[in-house]
Amino acid sequence: MAGFVLVHGSWHGGWCFDPVAEILRARGHLVDAPTLPGMGGTAQEMAAVTLAGWGDFAAQHCRSMKDRLGGGPVVLAGHSRGGLVVSTAAERDPAAMDALVYICAMMLPDGLSRAEFKQMEGPNPAFDAIIRKVHDGVATEIDTAHAGEVFAQISPPEAVTSVLPRLLAEPHGPRSEKIHVTPERWGRLPRTYVECTQDRTIPIASQRKMQQFSPGARVVTLDADHSPYLSRPVELADALEAAIPA
């Protein structure tokens, strides 16, 4: 038995992992998929969000999970922007978890922000077109009428239809914060990168660029869109389970 703490990506909540969490629980594991503080909140609440705060939040969930397991192994996984949270949590408290998984996620090297990496990626017109600023730029929202073809174009249509109305406003601040990771803390934990070859949000070229920037991760390749928890839930559960340290 192992424990999994799953961190959602931008505009989502912990509910996006429901299909994968169900599979992992059926296999005898414990799963915690919280929604990050501030998501969909007031302008003031979202303006107060920091990567450090999100990292501490995720690390606390890992510590709680480890207590429930009596010290057993805990895997911290993040999807998309959730990778920033995973890295921050691991740097702040590497003893709280035993392995890291990045699911088509931001696995950035020390000193680089998500916003800076976005500039390196180049244009992504379809993705950029569905994002709109709210609260004077404090947050962003998604055009749900067109998000499915960018986030989940090969996922089951009924699953996509049920998820899109639940998307939330996303605090913008963490995207501009530089990641801080060190070999002694974040770098001491085993890492898995789950790359998704049909991703239209973080294209496979960008995913592989991040793998080059931060070498050393075990790589699992899925024929999936940006929502592998919908399009390939069994395969994603397999990848998460394979990340449990021996």
UniProtKB/TrEMBL annotation:
One of its GO terms (molecular function) is hydrolase activity. Gene3D superfamilies: alpha/beta hydrolase (3.40.50.1820). InterPro entries: AB_hydrolase_1, AB_hydrolase_fold, MES/HNL. Keywords: Hydrolase. Residues 4-239 form the AB hydrolase-1 domain. The keyword Hydrolase applies. The keyword Hydrolase applies. It comes from the Bacteria. This is Alpha/beta fold hydrolase.
